[in-house]
Amino acid sequence: MDGVDLIFKVAAIGILVAVLNQLLIRSGREDQAMVTTLAGLVVVLFMVVERISLLFETIKSVFDL
After folding, report:
1. Which residue, 39, 16, 19, is CA-closest to 27?
2. 32 and 24 in contact (C-beta within 8 Å)?
3. Positive or negative CA dihedral for 46, 51, 55, 61?
4. Residues 2, 35: Cα–Cα separation, whole Å
5. Which end of the chain has a smaller Cβ tally under 10 Å, C or N?
6. This prediction's pTM
7. Burial grade of 36 (CB within 10 A; 0-12, 13-18, 19 or more)
8. For residue 9, with 0-12 CB atoms within 10 Å meaning exposed, 13-18 middle and 19 or more buried, which class applies?
């Protein structure tokens, strides 16, 4: 996965979650809006954790740790 590709995926998820959040809040479903926001956050974190792990592995190999 390319770095720019990851940024676009995170942005798309953010826009989708924001739209769903607003729709749910306006229909009076604040609890579901919160769950939707948390689910979007978890999805993005899983995507980013892979890249952070790769970063730490690269740092360990560069500094021979």
Report:
1. 19
2. yes
3. positive
4. 29
5. C
6. 0.78
7. buried
8. middle
- The predicted model gives 13-36 an average pLDDT of 96
- The backbone torsions φ and ψ at residue 60, rounded to the nearest 5 degrees and listed phi first, read -65, -40
What gap in Å lies between CA 19 and CA 43, rounded to an integer?
16
Which pLDDT does position 2 carry in this prediction?
Answer: 76
The pLDDT confidence band at residue 10, using thresholds 50, 70 and 90, is very high
* In contact, 62 and 46? CB cutoff 8 Å: no
Q: In this structure, what token pair is assigned to residue 11?
A: 């942005």
Distance CA 20, CA 12 (A): 12
